[in-house]
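FORM 7B: Structural annotation worksheet

SECTION A. Query
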Amino acid sequence: MEEKPRRILFIYTRNSTFINGDLEILSGRHIVTSLEVDNTTPLKQFFALIKEFFFLLTQINSHDVIYIWFADYHSFLPAIFARLARKKCYLVIGGYDTCRVKKYKYGSFVNPVRGFMTRISMKLATLNLCVSQYVERVVKAVAPGASTEVIYNGMRFEPATVNKPGGTPGVLCVALAASPQSFHIKGVDRFIALAAAMPHCNFTLVGADMDRIWFLTGKLPANLTILPKVEHSRLRKFYIQSNVYCQLSRRESFSLALAEAMNHGCIPVITRAGGMPEVTGGLGESVFALTGDSFKTSGENMALESAVEAVNRALSNTDRAAQAERIRTHFTFEKRAARLLELVK
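SECTION B. Predicted structure
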Protein backbone atom coordinates (compact mmCIF):
# COMPACT_ATOMS: atom_id res chain seq x y z
CA MET A 1 0.00 0.00 0.00
CA GLU A 2 1.32 3.42 -0.96
CA GLU A 3 2.28 5.60 1.99
CA LYS A 4 -0.09 8.48 2.60
CA PRO A 5 1.67 11.87 2.44
CA ARG A 6 1.96 13.67 5.77
CA ARG A 7 1.23 17.37 6.16
CA ILE A 8 4.38 18.93 7.58
CA LEU A 9 4.86 22.45 8.91
CA PHE A 10 8.53 23.30 8.33
CA ILE A 11 9.75 26.21 10.49
CA TYR A 12 13.13 27.92 10.14
CA THR A 13 14.77 31.33 10.54
CA ARG A 14 16.97 31.63 7.44
CA ASN A 15 18.03 29.53 4.48
CA SER A 16 21.15 27.38 4.53
CA THR A 17 22.47 24.37 2.65
CA PHE A 18 21.34 22.00 5.41
CA ILE A 19 17.89 23.53 5.82
CA ASN A 20 17.25 23.48 2.08
CA GLY A 21 18.39 19.86 2.02
CA ASP A 22 15.88 18.79 4.67
CA LEU A 23 13.15 20.76 2.94
CA GLU A 24 13.90 18.92 -0.30
CA ILE A 25 13.91 15.54 1.45
CA LEU A 26 10.55 16.06 3.12
CA SER A 27 8.91 17.76 0.14
CA GLY A 28 9.78 14.84 -2.09
CA ARG A 29 7.29 12.59 -0.33
CA HIS A 30 5.08 14.79 1.82
CA ILE A 31 3.05 17.99 1.69
CA VAL A 32 5.23 20.67 3.26
CA THR A 33 4.28 24.20 4.31
CA SER A 34 7.26 26.45 5.03
CA LEU A 35 7.16 29.18 7.67
CA GLU A 36 10.16 31.49 7.86
CA VAL A 37 10.59 33.40 11.13
CA ASP A 38 12.82 36.35 10.26
CA ASN A 39 15.26 36.98 13.12
CA THR A 40 17.69 39.29 11.32
CA THR A 41 16.81 42.17 13.68
CA PRO A 42 15.01 42.25 17.04
CA LEU A 43 12.12 44.23 15.55
CA LYS A 44 11.67 41.86 12.60
CA GLN A 45 11.83 38.92 14.97
CA PHE A 46 9.17 40.43 17.23
CA PHE A 47 6.68 40.80 14.39
CA ALA A 48 7.64 37.42 12.93
CA LEU A 49 6.88 35.73 16.26
CA ILE A 50 3.47 37.42 16.39
CA LYS A 51 2.80 36.18 12.87
CA GLU A 52 3.94 32.70 13.92
CA PHE A 53 1.56 32.70 16.89
CA PHE A 54 -1.51 33.47 14.78
CA PHE A 55 -0.42 31.02 12.09
CA LEU A 56 -0.15 28.25 14.68
CA LEU A 57 -3.44 29.25 16.28
CA THR A 58 -5.31 28.84 13.00
CA GLN A 59 -3.26 26.18 11.17
CA ILE A 60 -1.83 23.74 13.73
CA ASN A 61 -4.68 21.27 13.23
CA SER A 62 -4.10 21.30 9.46
CA HIS A 63 -0.72 19.63 9.92
CA ASP A 64 0.41 16.22 11.14
CA VAL A 65 4.04 17.01 11.92
CA ILE A 66 5.95 20.11 13.05
CA TYR A 67 9.58 20.19 11.90
CA ILE A 68 11.79 22.97 13.26
CA TRP A 69 15.39 23.88 12.50
CA PHE A 70 17.19 25.10 15.66
CA ALA A 71 15.88 25.60 19.18
CA ASP A 72 15.42 29.29 19.91
CA TYR A 73 12.71 31.91 20.30
CA HIS A 74 11.01 30.65 17.14
CA SER A 75 10.75 27.03 18.38
CA PHE A 76 9.05 27.82 21.71
CA LEU A 77 5.49 28.41 20.48
CA PRO A 78 5.48 25.57 17.92
CA ALA A 79 6.69 23.12 20.56
CA ILE A 80 3.90 24.19 22.93
CA PHE A 81 1.22 24.14 20.23
CA ALA A 82 2.39 20.73 19.01
CA ARG A 83 2.18 19.30 22.53
CA LEU A 84 -1.30 20.75 23.12
CA ALA A 85 -2.57 19.55 19.74
CA ARG A 86 -0.86 16.17 20.14
CA LYS A 87 1.20 16.58 17.01
CA LYS A 88 4.66 15.14 16.47
CA CYS A 89 7.36 17.78 16.81
CA TYR A 90 10.89 17.22 15.48
CA LEU A 91 13.51 19.77 16.49
CA VAL A 92 16.88 19.90 14.73
CA ILE A 93 19.63 21.00 17.12
CA GLY A 94 22.50 22.57 15.23
CA GLY A 95 24.98 24.06 17.69
CA TYR A 96 24.29 27.71 18.55
CA ASP A 97 21.25 26.51 20.44
CA THR A 98 23.47 24.48 22.80
CA CYS A 99 26.12 27.13 23.50
CA ARG A 100 26.84 29.57 26.28
CA VAL A 101 30.07 31.50 25.73
CA LYS A 102 29.61 34.54 27.95
CA LYS A 103 32.88 36.18 26.91
CA TYR A 104 31.66 36.61 23.34
CA LYS A 105 27.93 36.69 24.15
CA TYR A 106 27.53 33.66 21.91
CA GLY A 107 24.84 31.02 22.20
CA SER A 108 21.20 30.76 23.17
CA PHE A 109 21.98 30.17 26.83
CA VAL A 110 23.81 33.49 27.30
CA ASN A 111 20.38 35.14 27.54
CA PRO A 112 18.28 33.61 30.37
CA VAL A 113 14.95 34.12 28.56
CA ARG A 114 16.31 32.74 25.32
CA GLY A 115 17.87 29.84 27.17
CA PHE A 116 14.57 29.08 28.91
CA MET A 117 12.70 28.99 25.59
CA THR A 118 15.41 26.81 24.07
CA ARG A 119 15.36 24.35 26.97
CA ILE A 120 11.55 24.08 27.04
CA SER A 121 11.51 23.54 23.27
CA MET A 122 13.94 20.65 23.66
CA LYS A 123 11.91 19.08 26.46
CA LEU A 124 8.59 19.37 24.63
CA ALA A 125 9.84 18.07 21.28
CA THR A 126 8.90 14.54 20.31
CA LEU A 127 12.52 14.06 19.28
CA ASN A 128 15.57 16.33 19.14
CA LEU A 129 17.54 15.57 15.99
CA CYS A 130 21.16 16.30 16.90
CA VAL A 131 23.75 16.89 14.15
CA SER A 132 26.54 15.25 16.18
CA GLN A 133 27.11 13.17 19.29
CA TYR A 134 28.66 16.25 20.88
CA VAL A 135 25.41 18.18 20.39
CA GLU A 136 23.42 15.26 21.77
CA ARG A 137 25.53 15.22 24.95
CA VAL A 138 24.91 18.93 25.48
CA VAL A 139 21.15 18.57 24.93
CA LYS A 140 21.00 15.82 27.54
CA ALA A 141 22.90 18.06 29.96
CA VAL A 142 20.86 21.26 29.49
CA ALA A 143 17.45 19.59 29.04
CA PRO A 144 17.38 16.41 31.15
CA GLY A 145 14.74 13.99 29.96
CA ALA A 146 14.63 15.34 26.40
CA SER A 147 14.41 12.67 23.69
CA THR A 148 17.38 12.72 21.32
CA GLU A 149 18.80 11.01 18.28
CA VAL A 150 21.92 11.73 16.26
CA ILE A 151 21.32 12.18 12.54
CA TYR A 152 24.44 13.53 10.88
CA ASN A 153 24.24 16.19 8.22
CA GLY A 154 24.35 14.72 4.74
CA MET A 155 26.25 15.78 1.64
CA ARG A 156 25.74 15.33 -2.05
CA PHE A 157 28.88 14.32 -3.87
CA GLU A 158 29.89 15.73 -7.22
CA PRO A 159 32.81 14.13 -9.06
CA ALA A 160 35.80 15.13 -6.95
CA THR A 161 39.52 14.74 -7.51
CA VAL A 162 41.85 14.32 -4.57
CA ASN A 163 44.93 15.21 -6.62
CA LYS A 164 46.50 18.56 -5.81
CA PRO A 165 48.36 21.08 -7.98
CA GLY A 166 52.09 21.57 -7.52
CA GLY A 167 53.81 24.72 -6.35
CA THR A 168 53.57 26.45 -2.99
CA PRO A 169 51.35 24.42 -0.64
CA GLY A 170 47.98 25.95 0.18
CA VAL A 171 46.18 26.03 3.53
CA LEU A 172 42.47 26.89 3.52
CA CYS A 173 39.87 27.97 6.07
CA VAL A 174 36.21 28.70 5.31
CA ALA A 175 34.59 30.69 8.10
CA LEU A 176 31.69 33.13 7.97
CA ALA A 177 33.13 35.91 10.11
CA ALA A 178 31.07 39.09 10.06
CA SER A 179 31.19 40.08 13.74
CA PRO A 180 33.55 39.97 16.72
CA GLN A 181 31.56 36.95 17.92
CA SER A 182 32.05 34.86 14.80
CA PHE A 183 35.64 36.10 14.38
CA HIS A 184 36.62 34.50 17.68
CA ILE A 185 34.22 31.53 17.76
CA LYS A 186 35.42 30.40 14.32
CA GLY A 187 39.06 30.84 15.36
CA VAL A 188 39.89 33.36 12.64
CA ASP A 189 42.40 35.02 14.98
CA ARG A 190 44.15 31.66 15.33
CA PHE A 191 44.24 31.14 11.57
CA ILE A 192 45.85 34.56 11.06
CA ALA A 193 48.46 33.83 13.74
CA LEU A 194 49.18 30.48 12.09
CA ALA A 195 49.67 32.12 8.69
CA ALA A 196 52.12 34.62 10.18
CA ALA A 197 54.11 31.75 11.69
CA MET A 198 54.34 29.85 8.37
CA PRO A 199 55.46 32.35 5.69
CA HIS A 200 56.50 29.53 3.33
CA CYS A 201 52.84 28.51 2.81
CA ASN A 202 49.94 30.27 1.13
CA PHE A 203 46.94 30.72 3.44
CA THR A 204 43.43 31.52 2.22
CA LEU A 205 40.48 32.57 4.38
CA VAL A 206 37.07 32.56 2.69
CA GLY A 207 34.00 34.13 4.27
CA ALA A 208 35.36 37.09 6.23
CA ASP A 209 33.58 40.44 6.02
CA MET A 210 36.58 42.74 6.42
CA ASP A 211 34.38 45.84 6.48
CA ARG A 212 33.07 44.61 9.84
CA ILE A 213 36.08 42.89 11.40
CA TRP A 214 39.09 44.83 10.06
CA PHE A 215 39.82 46.30 13.51
CA LEU A 216 40.24 42.80 14.99
CA THR A 217 42.84 41.42 12.61
CA GLY A 218 45.92 43.52 13.33
CA LYS A 219 48.66 43.49 10.72
CA LEU A 220 47.95 40.76 8.21
CA PRO A 221 50.77 38.52 6.95
CA ALA A 222 51.69 38.81 3.27
CA ASN A 223 51.02 35.11 2.64
CA LEU A 224 47.36 35.37 3.72
CA THR A 225 44.57 36.03 1.22
CA ILE A 226 41.20 37.01 2.71
CA LEU A 227 38.06 36.73 0.59
CA PRO A 228 34.43 37.56 1.38
CA LYS A 229 31.61 35.04 1.44
CA VAL A 230 31.18 33.31 -1.92
CA GLU A 231 28.39 31.21 -3.38
CA HIS A 232 28.49 27.69 -2.00
CA SER A 233 29.08 26.23 -5.47
CA ARG A 234 32.28 28.29 -5.84
CA LEU A 235 33.93 26.77 -2.77
CA ARG A 236 34.82 23.65 -4.76
CA LYS A 237 37.59 25.56 -6.55
CA PHE A 238 39.25 26.45 -3.25
CA TYR A 239 39.02 22.89 -1.95
CA ILE A 240 40.69 21.56 -5.10
CA GLN A 241 43.52 24.08 -4.91
CA SER A 242 44.30 23.52 -1.21
CA ASN A 243 46.45 20.85 0.40
CA VAL A 244 45.33 21.36 4.00
CA TYR A 245 42.06 22.51 5.51
CA CYS A 246 42.23 24.25 8.93
CA GLN A 247 39.27 24.73 11.24
CA LEU A 248 40.53 26.18 14.51
CA SER A 249 37.12 26.98 15.99
CA ARG A 250 36.39 27.41 19.68
CA ARG A 251 32.90 25.96 19.16
CA GLU A 252 31.71 23.85 16.23
CA SER A 253 28.74 21.49 16.12
CA PHE A 254 29.68 19.72 12.87
CA SER A 255 31.38 21.86 10.13
CA LEU A 256 30.11 21.33 6.62
CA ALA A 257 33.16 23.04 5.11
CA LEU A 258 35.47 20.60 6.91
CA ALA A 259 33.58 17.63 5.46
CA GLU A 260 33.53 19.16 1.97
CA ALA A 261 37.26 19.89 2.08
CA MET A 262 38.05 16.31 3.14
CA ASN A 263 35.87 15.06 0.29
CA HIS A 264 38.24 16.90 -2.06
CA GLY A 265 41.31 15.33 -0.49
CA CYS A 266 42.33 18.12 1.89
CA ILE A 267 44.10 16.91 5.02
CA PRO A 268 42.25 18.36 8.03
CA VAL A 269 43.83 20.25 10.92
CA ILE A 270 41.22 20.90 13.61
CA THR A 271 40.84 21.88 17.22
CA ARG A 272 39.31 19.21 19.44
CA ALA A 273 36.13 21.24 19.68
CA GLY A 274 32.53 20.12 19.40
CA GLY A 275 31.63 17.69 16.66
CA MET A 276 34.69 18.14 14.44
CA PRO A 277 36.51 15.03 15.74
CA GLU A 278 33.43 13.03 14.71
CA VAL A 279 33.79 14.36 11.18
CA THR A 280 37.50 13.56 10.83
CA GLY A 281 37.29 10.22 12.65
CA GLY A 282 40.93 10.42 13.73
CA LEU A 283 42.23 11.32 10.28
CA GLY A 284 44.43 14.35 9.79
CA GLU A 285 45.67 16.37 12.74
CA SER A 286 44.10 17.92 15.82
CA VAL A 287 45.41 20.46 18.31
CA PHE A 288 44.36 21.33 21.84
CA ALA A 289 41.19 23.42 21.95
CA LEU A 290 42.28 26.50 23.86
CA THR A 291 39.54 28.99 24.67
CA GLY A 292 41.77 32.06 24.95
CA ASP A 293 41.74 35.01 22.59
CA SER A 294 44.92 33.97 20.80
CA PHE A 295 47.38 31.12 20.54
CA LYS A 296 49.87 30.87 23.36
CA THR A 297 53.45 31.13 22.12
CA SER A 298 54.95 29.72 25.29
CA GLY A 299 53.93 27.80 28.34
CA GLU A 300 52.58 24.32 28.90
CA ASN A 301 50.42 24.04 25.77
CA MET A 302 52.48 26.06 23.29
CA ALA A 303 49.44 25.97 21.06
CA LEU A 304 50.83 27.98 18.14
CA GLU A 305 53.90 25.77 17.87
CA SER A 306 51.66 22.70 18.08
CA ALA A 307 49.48 24.03 15.28
CA VAL A 308 52.50 24.75 13.08
CA GLU A 309 53.77 21.22 13.63
CA ALA A 310 50.30 19.83 12.87
CA VAL A 311 50.10 21.71 9.56
CA ASN A 312 53.60 20.56 8.59
CA ARG A 313 52.62 16.95 9.28
CA ALA A 314 49.42 17.43 7.28
CA LEU A 315 51.39 18.85 4.35
CA SER A 316 53.48 15.67 4.24
CA ASN A 317 50.41 13.41 4.45
CA THR A 318 49.66 11.93 1.02
CA ASP A 319 46.73 9.69 1.96
CA ARG A 320 44.13 12.02 0.46
CA ALA A 321 41.85 9.24 -0.74
CA ALA A 322 41.20 8.18 2.86
CA GLN A 323 39.81 11.62 3.70
CA ALA A 324 37.30 11.47 0.86
CA GLU A 325 36.38 7.88 1.65
CA ARG A 326 35.46 8.71 5.23
CA ILE A 327 33.11 11.52 4.23
CA ARG A 328 31.51 9.52 1.42
CA THR A 329 30.92 6.60 3.78
CA HIS A 330 29.50 8.35 6.84
CA PHE A 331 27.92 11.64 5.80
CA THR A 332 25.72 11.05 2.79
CA PHE A 333 22.57 12.90 1.84
CA GLU A 334 20.89 9.54 1.26
CA LYS A 335 21.51 8.36 4.84
CA ARG A 336 19.97 11.48 6.33
CA ALA A 337 17.05 11.32 3.90
CA ALA A 338 16.28 7.69 4.72
CA ARG A 339 16.15 8.32 8.46
CA LEU A 340 14.09 11.54 8.25
CA LEU A 341 11.53 9.90 5.99
CA GLU A 342 11.31 6.92 8.32
CA LEU A 343 10.61 9.22 11.27
CA VAL A 344 7.79 11.20 9.70
CA LYS A 345 5.98 8.41 7.87
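SECTION C. Observations
The chain has a mean pLDDT of 89. The longest helix spans residues 42-59.

SECTION D. Sign-off
Analyst initials: ____
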